[in-house]
Amino acid sequence: ALDAGLARTTAEQVVVLSADLPFLGERTVRRLLDALAGSGADGAVLTDPDGRDQPLVAAYRRDALLRG
Predict the structure, then answer these.
(1) N or C: which end of the chain has fewer CB within 10 A?
(2) Residues 1-6: contacts with CB under 8 Å, at least 24 apart
């Protein structure tokens, strides 16, 4: 699914989200995109309250996903 989406977009930044996120708000997505834009990193990943990275709640640079 990710490959299919990447093939259809020219966006420089891509948000990757798992399907079951009923409480995810626009503010969180905006903060991920802002964090990515303000860094030289390939992605910005949400960290849950227990300190675990959540790679399916993240913003990535499209070129990094294409390389990966």
Answers:
(1) N
(2) 2/65, 6/62, 6/65, 6/66
Domain extent, residue 15, equals 2-67
Q: What is the residue whose two structure tokens read 């294409």? A: 66
Q: What is the model's pTM?
A: 0.90
Cβ count near 63 (within 10 Å): 12
Q: Is 59:15 a contact under the CB 8 Å cutoff? A: yes
| Domain total in the chain | 1
Residue 51 pLDDT class (50, 70, 90 cuts): very high
